[in-house]
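subagent[fold] <- orchestrator: predict structure for attached chain, return tokens only, no commentary.
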Amino acid sequence: MSAPNDNLANQLLIALPALADPNFSRAVALICQHDEQGAMGVVVNRASEYTLGQVLSQMGIGSDDEALCASTVLHGGPVHQERGFVLHDGGQEWESSLQVADGLFLTTSRDILEAMAAGEGPAHAVVALGCAGWGAGQLEYELGENTWLTAPVDAELLFELPLERRWQTAAGRIGVDDLFRLADYSGHA
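subagent[fold] -> orchestrator:
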């Protein structure tokens, strides 16, 4: 568990099985920003109903890259569902980027999507619609209530692992082999 003043940016939140909120049940969220004002992150294991090709088309951006256009867009969370968030590697500067960690960025500007469509984007990227947000002290409270586990982030989980394997794999990286067995013991002394 994290102390209230710990900065959780660049950490994964792993929802425990008892978390009933449909927005976060069995979710894995990357915390991109965390300070005294609250926290912002992107759920990285939920598919939206859109492909990247559909999103690009709605934005008037064309691409001949069939694999890129067929890639799944994530449902990044219940906040700002009309906005796109691109989690990516690389060091290139984009109009609106936040450095989450060394080599890991969150970009919200159109220029990165245009570059990706032209085959000039970052080597690894995932696109999400929407994000998750927590008010001041809310995430710390939820951690204290044993709603979430935290784990270090890694590129394989973000960019390569199939979505349906990310929840249990993230927990396994911190030694929790079965989240449901962990749930059986929560609340017992």
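orchestrator: received. Logging for downstream: The helical segments are 52-58, 66-70, 110-117, 138-144, 155-159, 166-172, 179-185. The longest helix spans residues 110-117.
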